[in-house]
Structure prediction request, 137 residues.
Amino acid sequence: MGDLRVVELEWEGGMRFRGGATDGPKVLLDAGATREGPGPMLMLLLACGGCSGADVVSILEKAQVKLRKFHTEVKGIRADDHPKRYTSIHFLMTLAGDGLDETKARRAIDLSLTKYCSVIKSLASDIAVTYDLVLEP
Prediction:
């Protein structure tokens, strides 16, 4: 069997839920107007960005890169019809660091998006996942 993960959500009224791991910190999810917290589909983009970001940072650290900056913007395009799932997800990653070059950055990002990011690998395989890279001095 695999590593079992469990989350709980408690309804807080309206379309707001607070949830997280049973014994961990909780976050507010606003499935309505998203005024008080991100909605489920935005949380999915955040999960993609956080998972991939952790991979990229780890891979670059192993490559002896000393990161000074890592910023990710994640955009998702949703289908017009229900269930209005994402049809594509695009990352804009901006990085800066000592020992960082385009080859190392692209290798780390490619490994994350195609092999290591468990969130992205959990998505439907027909979702186009792409990225652009900006290297800062």
